[in-house]
Amino acid sequence: MSGKLFLSIVFMFGLNSTHAQQRVDSLAAYVLDRAVERIQNLVSCTYTAHITYDVSTADLGLVKHSYTDKVSMRFPDKMLITSTGDKGRRLMAYNGKKFYLYSYVNHNYVEVTAPETILGTIHAINNNYGIEFPAADFFYPTFTDDIIATGGSLIYLGTTWVGDKECHHIAGMDTKGTGFQFWITDIQFLPVKMVMVYGSEKGGPQYEAIYTDWVLNPVLSDSMFEFIPPPSASKTKLTPVAQTK
To answer: Which among 156, 158, 180 has a CA at the least distance from the CA of 25?
Structure first.
């Protein structure tokens, strides 16, 4: 899963051995491949990602936080994300040339020259500035192969229900003990839920993403991906990750 956004995932179903032999169920790989293929064939999409995550504190232990991202994408080079929650209200826009991040709380924005594709921009902004995007792993065409390449396990657990949707349930663990679970709809092969547990960290903090409100191939105009700074908004700069260490 090298190059993806949320990859330090650990522990699953009480399994904590880092020496387990690789096991890859062909059905698990097939379902993930179908989900990736489904997304790769889209012209555009919108969806909502409901994110919850744990933060370790010295006095309270793990504290759970959450935020919600509403996402619009037109492939290969248009993206708009509006976010509300514990990370503050913000907007991220990408028009194929520039990436913008606007904070409604601080009333400021940044402008960064971006690569020519959505995935290139997600990768560059995340690697260079540490900005996370809403559980975008499924948008990478090599997602399944990257998981298998870790040398760990990928197991098909059957079907189950998430709300009113019947889903394929898949779990896995790599050789470093990082674990993950995915729920993929039975008919459309769209992601419904993703769970990770960071078992190498104190208390095993968790990350969960629930995908809702999928709309496939909507008509999305160029103008919705353009960012015009609000009056009196100040322009600032992003701090590179290397400078924050």
So the answer is: 156
- Take residue 156 and report the two structure tokens written for it: 């098909």
* Contact in structure between 79 and 65 (CB atoms under 8 Å): no
Neighbouring CB atoms inside 10 A of 47's CB total 19
CA distance 31 to 190: 10
Measure Cα distances from 9 to 19, 73, 89, 181, 238 in Å.
16, 26, 27, 10, 27
Those residues with Cβ within 8 angstroms of residue 118's Cβ, 6 or more apart along the chain or in another chain: 73, 75, 76, 77, 78, 79, 94, 139
Q: Which of 196, 228, 175, 216 is nearest to 35 (CA)?
A: 216
Distances (CA, A) of 208 to 145, 194, 204: 22, 6, 13
pTM exceeding 0.90 = no
Residue 46's nearest CA partner among 183, 226, 217, 223 is 217
CA 31 to chain centre: 18
Pair of tokens at residue 122 = 């997600």
Sheet holding 44-57, edge to edge: 153-162, 165-173, 179-185, 191-197, 206-216, 44-57, 61-74, 78-85, 90-94, 98-103, 108-113, 234-235
Q: Per-residue pLDDT tens for 44-80?
A: 999 999 999 999 999 999 999 999 999 999 999 999 9
Q: What is the mean pLDDT of the chain?
A: 88
User: How far is Cα 17 from Cα 111, in angstroms, rounded to an integer?
Assistant: 44
Confidence at residue 243, expressed as pLDDT on a 0 to 100 scale: 55
